[in-house]
Amino acid sequence: MPKLDHQTILLVFVAITGLTFLLQAVILLAILVAMRKLAKSIREESESLRTSLMPVVYDSRDFLAATQATLASTQEFLTTAQGVLARVSPKVDAISTDLVQITQTLRKQTAEMQTSATEIMERVRKQSDRLDSMITHFLDSVDRAGIFVADAVGKPVRQISRSLASVKAIVDTLRMPPPPRR
User: Fold this and answer.
1) How far is CA 167 from the centre of its chain?
2) Percentage helix, strand, coil, to 5, in the chain?
3) 136 falls in which pLDDT band (50, 70, 90)?
4) Does residue 180 fall inside a structural domain?
5) Which of 6, 64, 84, 110 has minimal Cβ neighbours within 10 Å of its Cβ?
6) Range of the domain at 17
7) Number of domains present in the structure of the chain
8) How much of the chain exceeds pLDDT 90, in percent?
9) How confident is the model at residue 72 (pLDDT cuts 50, 70, 90)?
């Protein structure tokens, strides 16, 4: 069973912390995507509401223009037109009130979404800076561990290699035939 020294434990904690920050970044990215979809949905709903209300507004304008043109010709039509205007006027008022409320609500929601998106982007930036720092620290630790392992393994290997070279030199010297005598 391998010994768990401080560097190994630290390396495990750094790896776990890195994974948690990666998970957090993914979650923040998912929240950003959801907020964008929500903004698109709100835009589409406001557009559909606008398109459904505009024909009523244009019809009311056309009706008022036609009524004004015929007012000059007959007093009887004026009475009828006044009745029609009396019925249409509350609807136009209600529609314009609703449009004002919808516009105000959309402005508030847009401002809130913009604030939220800004906060999310700031958090994402902070987390990415933090993640970059952690990865840099992790890679520095791995580099130091590699240097340590290279020194720990390389030094004994060099010593053994030198010892073997010495033994080989001694054996080669002993095997050599003696020099001729003169």
Assistant:
1) 65
2) 90, 0, 10
3) very high
4) no
5) 6
6) 6-175
7) 1
8) 28
9) low
